[in-house]
Structure formats: structure tokens, C-alpha cells
Design a protein that fits this description.
It is built from six helices and six strands. By secondary structure, it is of the alpha+beta class.
Length: about 200
């Protein structure tokens, strides 16, 4: 699989390629997403219920990078992204908004960037520079100028939540899952998430 910066192309099983800047691949059973503005800060109408998921206690073994530059996971040999999560963010993926403060309807909680970012190694953010970190990771408005390719990509939070694509162990969505997976966390939602990328 190739991840060129939430900014580039994905490829997975069967040599399929798609840009992270274009709409997702069609699934066998087409999804009909709806975008809703909740009536209150705690209500959201779901097109589909969020999938249930649980975190496994054991962590995966260390990963390696092969000669082609792909990251290799011993427990998931078919999942081979070419960019680490920190590389995607350093390239301006999500226009600097991914770790912005959010109100997560699946957990009925407000999440702060400063709290969420503490679970990741500080080395991930060092190349951005401390003064640039918020703008690259947690700004509330998408900024195309931080994106390596100068484009806007991605759907909004209500699309993801109302479609049932976000569960309680991943309030920020698929990329949050990838960040945690990359660091060794395994959960019952791994197969679904990997299938979305492959």
C-alpha cells in the first residue's frame, strides 16, 4: 500500500492505486453517507451504527522498513504502507487539522489536541518545529498551504460519524487507528481498517 501523504496515492492488494485526494474506492456494498449537523452537541443521527471494537492487551512486535521503503508488520504481512503516520503529518496531510479539538459523539466527550498528542513520541513532531506544531497538527481550519501538494482532501467529522465509520476506540477515525497500529496497538477493528486501505 502506498500512502503519499494523505496527499498522494494508495495501493494495496491486486495493485490497485488511488489517490487520497480523490473519493474512496467503491465497496462491494455501496455506502450511502449522510452529512448531518447535530441538533445539539450530544446528538447525531446515524446512517449505520458505529462498529464495536476492543483493544488487545498485547502489543505487536517492532516493525521494519523494506528495500522498497514499505513498512512491514510481522502480524499483517499484506499491509505495507510506504509512509509512517508522522511522515503523513509532516507532509501536511489533512491540512493541519487532524488532531484539532473535537467533540466525539461516539464517546460523548470533548477531546483536546494537547491531550491526544501526548500518546505519541515527541520525535514525531520535532521536524515540524515547536512553533509550527499547532499549525501542522491541530489548527481548526484546513490550510492547503501546509499540504505538500497544495490541495484540500478528506471528509468532515459528521460524514464519518453519521456513516458509522468511527467507533469508541478511535474517535478521530481511520488515521488515528493507523497511528496507533503503527505504534503496536492491536484491536478487534484491525481487519476492517486494513481492508479500507488495501
Amino acid at each position: 500500500m502506498i500512502l503519499s501523504g494523505c496527499t498522494g496515492a494508495l495501493s494495496g492488494g491486486g495493485g490497485r492505486r488511488r489517490s487520497l485526494l480523490t473519493p474512496p474506492l467503491r465497496h462491494a456494498a455501496p455506502l450511502t453517507p449522510i452529512i448531518l449537523q447535530p441538533k445539539s452537541s450530544t446528538s447525531l443521527a446515524y446512517k449505520a451504527p458505529p462498529p464495536k471494537a476492543s483493544v488487545q492487551k498485547s502489543k505487536a512486535k517492532a516493525l521494519t522498513r523494506n528495500a522498497d521503503g514499505d513498512w512491514c508488520f510481522a502480524d499483517e504481512p499484506g499491509f505495507r504502507p510506504n509512509l509512517a503516520p508522522y511522515e503523513v503529518l509532516q507532509m501536511g496531510g489533512f491540512g493541519g487539522t487532524y488532531f484539532r479539538p473535537i467533540e466525539a459523539h461516539v464517546t460523548q466527550s470533548k477531546l483536546k489536541s494537547s491531550e491526544v498528542l501526548t500518546e505519541y513520541p515527541k520525535e514525531w513532531w520535532a521536524p515540524m518545529g515547536k512553533s509550527n506544531m499547532k499549525h501542522m497538527l491541530a489548527t481548526t481550519a484546513y490550510d492547503q498551504t501546509v499540504n505538500t501538494y497544495g490541495v484540500k482532501c478528506g471528509g468532515d467529522m459528521y460524514l464519518w460519524e453519521s456513516s458509522g465509520w468511527i467507533n469508541a476506540i478511535g474517535s478521530y477515525g481511520a488515521f488515528l487507528w493507523y497511528c496507533r497500529f503503527f505504534l503496536g496497538r492491536r484491536c478487534s477493528d484491525d481487519a476492517r481498517q486494513i481492508s479500507r486501505f488495501n
